[in-house]
Amino acid sequence: MEFGPYLLLACLEGAVLAAVLALMASGLSLVFGVMRVVNVAHGEFYMLGAVMAWVVTSVLGGGAVINFVAALILAPLIVGALAVLADVTILKRLNYDPERTIVATIGLLYIIQQLALMGYGPEARPVEPPFNTRIALPWVEWGEGGISLYFPWGLSTTSYKLFVIAAAVVLLAALRLFMTRSRAGLIMRATQLDGEMATAFGIPVERVYALVFGAGAALAALAGVLIVPIQQAHYLMGGDALLLSFIVVIIGGLGSLAGTVVAAVLIGMSDGIISVFFTPTLAKIIATLLVALVLVFRPQGLFGVRER
Amino acid sequence: MLKIEGLSAGYGAAPVLRGVNLRAEAGEITVLMGRNGAGKTTLMKAIMGLVRAEAGDIDLDGADLAQLPPHMVPRQGVGYVPQGRRLFADLSVAQNIEVGLGAGPKDAASRRAVRAEVLELFPRLQERMGQRAGTLSGGEQQMLATARALCVRPKLLLLDEPTEGLQPSMIEAIRQVMVAMRDKGLAVLLVEQRIDAVLGLADRVSVIEMGRNAENFSRAELTEPENARRLRGHLGV
Ligand SMILES: Nc1ncnc2c1ncn2[C@@H]1O[C@H](COP(=O)(O)OP(=O)(O)OP(=O)(O)O)[C@@H](O)[C@H]1O
Ligand SMILES: [Mg+2]
Q1: Can you tell me which residues the record assigns to a coiled coil (chain B) (predicted)?
Q2: Same domain, yes or no, for B160 and B68?
Q3: How far apart are CA A129 and CA A59, in angstroms?
């Protein structure tokens, strides 16, 4: 394959990663933005989403489409409910103290991981995608007869990968509308800006926190469900995802949804492209270097606002 | 209306308020005075439930505010204009008003009525509904903070140094709103440092010193030069 088609292929792979990453990182960013909690267990909610997708699929045993739709609805709900429980039993008792909650969520990470190992086992298990048509992609050629389209061998993607990208775009747009237009979004933003004043105007801040923590986990779980037909569910899959989410959220600016999405595209695309042309390790090295540069020259992130 | 008895409160181990008594009546402006650090803001926060009362009662028309979860206090009809305004800076003027209305009337029709009524008091806000609250001028921010509190449709209005850092015309505007609210029958509890601003306005003045009651003056008492001099003495001016 020539360079051009190869690049297109890399971009598509990158876009799938960017889509999943944007969903997951916006959950992390939402939780930090509103609650000032750095949720180290966020990757485990992603893993739980993938594992739950497998569980729902094997319990239901219906057709691939029905199984997948059920997983897409049930897994985020179950994981979100677990997160609400963790919030009420652990984080609330720590008064949402920024430092102690970091330690607590590290503990939560290991608890969830070991429970998954005990309950689900060490195997990686696949979930069948609801649809998986191979779509050959055209490429242009400048020949003697002018521009012509042709289908290079090996340049293809699947309908499911395109669906993941489209689903992430729709979900993120919905999230943005929810935050800027709905009454619940207004309450979350008021709580984020000044929790004490939110309380003084009748907002039950602790209930908002519990729901935000649940919603953040549900977003990670959603990302997990979307990725599992491509990647398989494994009890250790949360680690890399967490690292990439942190990278995205730091580059984009903690608490900024727009920044998170832009950074996810940046990291996802460059990861895809560099992995295809060089090695995945180089992609991680460059991403981490980028974080270091952002931290040195623009600590609030590309889109973040300086703390007032 | 508001009856505080033996209130002790503070932050962590250090007590700030040590057995404070205070009353605020409907249709009156009660002014709370005291030196910097006396505990005026802490008292306001204790009424709002933002600082936990360790001892004592905070009774508002028979409801003990100290026993309520903090977010239920505004629903009892308490509007709070905090020191330093504390607006939701990244939200628009309209959204700040919306947050205030959230603690106000439940049904949409009376919400709209309250909103219209409040905005009528502050025409300048009406022209700036889409602007971010953080970009308003100091005077406009104070108007918005007051409007937000009035959206709760309070029977008790708390204002913590609302005229701090404002030019005279703004101070006059805020003062007129306070007088209008008093005449509507609200209990107004005002923290104010400047004696000249207080003398013509207050129906009652309570002075606290180091977290304890020092002295109370009625409007009539303040007209006597001797009492005005004593008040100045408490405040060290
Ligand atoms: N969050 C806090 N944590 C610990 N101590 C506090 C806190 N807020 C206030 N204090 C202390 O409580 C005391 C009373 O403070 P408060 O703000 O109530 O005073 P004030 O009368 O409102 O003063 P000012 O006129 O300067 O506004 C002060 O000694 C202050 O340092
Ligand atoms: Mg004060």
Answers
A1: none
A2: yes
A3: 16
Same domain, B37 and B125: no
To the nearest whole angstrom, how far is the Cα of B106 from the nearest Cα of chain A? 12
Test mutation, A92, A189, A201, chain B, max B CBs within 10 A: A201
User: Do B53 and B167 fall within a single domain?
Assistant: yes
Ligand at shortest distance from the CA of B40: 1
Calculate how far, in angstroms, residue A75's C-alpha sits from the geometric centre of ligand 1: 48
Query: End of a domain among B153, B171, B194?
Result: B153
**Ligand 1 center–CA B11 separation, angstroms:** 9
Q: Domain of B164: which CATH number?
A: 3.40.50.300
Its pTM stands at 0.91
B78-81 sheet: strands from edge to edge: B78-81, B156-160, B187-191, B28-33, B204-209, B212-218
Domain span at residue A278 reads: 3-123+161-297
A125 φ, ψ to 5°?
Answer: -125, 140
Alpha-carbon distance B109 to B95, whole Å? 18
Give the range of the structural domain holding residue B93, as residue numbers without chain letter: 86-153
Q: Is residue A77 part of a domain?
A: yes
Asked whether residue A155 is assigned to any structural domain, the reply reads: no
Residues of B in contact with A200 (CB under 8 A): 48, 50, 70, 73-74, 80, 82
Backbone angles phi, psi at B29, to 5 degrees: -105, 115
Q: What is the DSSP letter of B8?
A: E
Same domain, B163 and B72: yes
Residue A215 lies in a domain: yes
Give A207 to chain B, closest Cα distance, Å: 11
Whether B162 and B237 share a structural domain? yes
Q: Flag whether A44 is in a domain.
A: yes
| Beta-carbon contacts of residue A278 (< 8 Å; ≥ 6 apart) | none
CA distance linking residue A255 with residue A32, whole number of Å: 6
In A143-193, alpha helices (H): 159-181, 183-193
- A·B CB contacts under 8 A: 62
Domain count of chain B?
Answer: 2
Final residue belonging to a domain, choices B95, B119, B153? B153
The residue whose CA is least distant from atom 1 of ligand 1 is B11
To the nearest whole angstrom, how far is the Cα of A178 from the nearest Cα of chain B?
Answer: 14
Distance of CA A12 to the CA centre of its chain: 17
Q: What is the pLDDT along chain B (237 residues), one digit of tens a residue?
A: 999 999 999 998 888 999 999 999 999 999 999 999 999 999 999 999 999 999 999 999 999 999 999 999 999 999 999 999 999 999 999 999 999 999 999 999 999 999 999 999 999 999 999 999 999 999 999 999 999 999 999 999 999 999 998 999 999 999 999 999 999 999 999 999 888 888 889 999 999 999 999 999 999 898 899 998 999 988 887
